[in-house]
Design goal:
By secondary structure, this protein is an alpha+beta fold. It has 4 domains: 103 residues, Immunoglobulin-like (Sandwich), CATH 2.60.40; 136 residues, Immunoglobulin-like; 131 residues, Sandwich (Immunoglobulin-like), CATH 2.60.40; 118 residues, Four Helix Bundle (Hemerythrin (Met), subunit A) (Up-down Bundle), CATH 1.20.120. The protein is built from 7 helices and 32 strands. Strands 21, 23, 24, 25, 26, 28 and 29 form a 7-stranded mixed beta sheet that branches.
């Protein structure tokens, strides 16, 4: 009997020791997911704790949570307890990453979870769930890269335009670039887009709205198959649900979504070798060639300017102008390059000039020989050679036999002249030297006192202008605040009327910024605003919040919006104006 009692006591102690063990672990809904999928992460423990500290979630964006749930039950006298912290994550890029260690304190001791490895792969097709707004956007939002030519020649320009297509039922509040294309084997230039406007269009034969996000002009510098890297965006969407409010309108729900344009392949064709001119320097496009001389007659002591100019459309920045040789008697200086090139979605267009300064050293008649320029014409897909006319130059004057001096400003040789020496004078006139003392003279006292007066005058002027600038800045700030309050009050009175509200809010921000920066209307652009605020050392987070608010004002006019979101944008505007005002003081 005693033996059985002892055995029961041992088993009871063993069970109690097992129950008292603390278990703190990380659970994920999947260890491998696409970049367009969500990851659910749960940190679960079987005892109550304090000071929970989650990991940093590097390479992921937290789109939901933390949510906390507790389960506490008694079954047949046995207590069951669990506490769970849940996060919803969205991967930022592809790769293999780790969910780090979470930490918590239980009875004064620190406990940690083990790291969990997650593999993020390319975007995958997700099941369509009608009642889940997170999946409604799968067939309603597309990021597309439109390429003007998929089989260009080497050094032939083409464009890549990134457009975001979305259906009329979906609203887009904001977007953020996760990864931008790197055009490694291309000469590239981005075309600035000052304002993002919503337009109507078609994609895959269906009607959509779209916004043009990026425009880039590319010139391939390598033959063969090249990759146009994708653009990836993190979108904040307003998605409709199947629920309706009291007035019968569909309730919208915010959601995060990552979209990518996908990589594109292009095949770059080499330039043909048949009939390729020897002096071909890589010009591809449609060009005209000119050569002009500033003078046809001049003397030995003068200089002339020879101008080589190429006009047209093509890769104007990517080739050299033709070179030429002249007789030794004509000294040629290094050319000065002048470029007047504009780059649009259709490529580079304009002119390139080389200006040569030529100085003759001997008289005579000289010829500037014909100069050849060759280029590959895209319309006919053949090489074309353009020749200039001969230019005759007549030089008058005497041959230079003496030493010359070069004038750096005009680059003109100057003829040396002989120096005539006058005879020495033997008769002199003596004058009496004045013996007046400089010390204690009027000039002495003027020179002594004037520096002190000048210093005092400078200090007075500095103080005057400092106080004046402070007064002007203070007056400008007061006027700016009055304008901001006026239009913010107007926006608040229009709360509930989407278009009037955002027009008033946009007007409040614009008038405030114009008042403090003193912008002219012609200079008032987003890029200039950002530049001026950076120059005034305004915090970068404030500038970023301002840009996001501008985007919200632009997009909200075309997308569904709620009173709650309008109120949130109003509070953001008030906060941003207050912070900028403090930064500029």
């Amino acid at each position: 009997m005693n033996y059985k009692l002892f055995l029961n006591l041992v088993l009871l102690f063993f069970n109690l020791s097992i129950v008292s063990q603390i278990n703190f672990e990380t659970k994920v809904n999947k260890s491998s997911l696409g970049i367009n999928e969500r990851l659910s992460v749960e940190f679960t423990l079987n005892e109550d704790g304090d000071n929970f500290n989650p990991p940093s979630f590097k390479n992921f964006k937290v789109v939901g949570g933390p949510t906390q749930s507790i389960k506490n039950s008694w079954v047949n006298g046995t207590r069951s307890y669990s506490k769970t912290y849940t996060y919803f994550l969205l991967p930022i890029k592809m790769g293999v990453f780790k969910i780090g260690q979470a930490k918590i304190e239980i009875d004064g001791k620190l406990y940690k979870t083990l790291p969990v490895e997650i593999k993020v792969i390319a975007a995958v097709k997700t099941p369509n769930k009608e009642n889940d707004p997170n999946y409604i956007s799968d067939g309603e939002v597309y990021l597309v890269s439109e390429i003007s030519k998929i089989s260009p020649y080497l050094n032939e320009g083409f464009s890549v335009v990134h457009k975001l297509y979305f259906s009329s039922d979906i609203g887009i509040n904001n977007w953020r670039e996760l990864s931008s294309p790197r055009y490694v084997d291309f000469w590239s230039q981005n075309i600035n887009i000052d304002n993002y406007t919503v337009e109507d269009g078609f994609y895959n034969g269906e009607s959509y709205r779209f916004v043009t996000l990026k425009k880039t002009v590319l010139y391939p510098q390598k033959e063969g198959e090249l990759i146009i890297e994708p653009l990836s965006l993190d979108l904040t969407l307003q998605l409709p649900t199947n629920r309706r409010d009291f007035f019968g309108q569909r309730i919208m729900k915010s959601s995060q979504k990552i979209v990518t344009s996908g990589g594109k392949k292009i095949k770059v064709k080499p330039l043909p070798l048949n009939n390729k001119p020897k002096n071909f320097s890589g010009a591809v496009g449609s060009f005209k060639f000119f050569i002009n001389s500033s003078k046809s007659k001049l003397s030995v002591s003068e200089a002339l300017e020879l101008k080589l100019e190429i006009k047209g459309q093509g890769n104007l920045k990517l080739f050299q102008l033709p070179e030429f040789t002249l007789p030794i008697s004509l000294e040629v200086y290094e050319p000065e390059r002048e470029e007047n090139i504009s780059t649009s979605i259709y490529g580079m267009k304009g002119s390139v000039k080389d200006l040569y300064t030529i100085v003759p050293s001997n008289p005579g008649r000289y010829k500037v020989p014909k100069i050849l320029f060759s280029y590959f014409d895209l319309d006919s897909e053949t090489y074309r050679v353009v020749s200039s006319d001969e230019i005759n130059i007549d030089i008058d004057g005497e041959e230079w036999n003496t030493e010359v001096a070069r004038n750096n400003d005009s680059k003109i040789r100057l003829k040396a002249k002989a120096v005539n020496f006058l005879p020495f004078k033997t008769k002199t006139k003596l004058t009496k030297i004045r013996t007046n003392s400089f010390f204690n003279s009027s000039i002495f006292w003027v020179l002594l006192i004037s520096p002190l007066i000048i210093v005092l005058l400078i200090l007075f002027l500095i103080k005057y202008f400092t106080n004046r600038n402070k007064f002007l800045d203070s007056n400008t700030s007061i006027q700016a605040k009055k304008l901001a309050k006026k239009y913010l009050a107007e926006a608040m009175s229009n709360l509930g009327s989407k278009e009037k509200f955002y027009e008033s809010l946009d007007r409040a921000l614009h008038n405030y910024l114009k008042s403090i920066i003193l912008f002219e209307n012609s200079n008032y652009t987003k890029s200039n605003i950002e530049f001026e605020l950076n120059k005034r050392a305004v915090d970068i987070e404030i500038i970023t919040s301002l840009n996001k608010l501008f985007s919200n004002c632009e997009m909200a006019r075309y997308t569904p919006i709620t009173d709650v979101e309008m109120n949130s944008d109003y509070n953001k505007a008030v906060e941003i104006i207050s912070k900028i005002d403090k930064e500029l003081k």
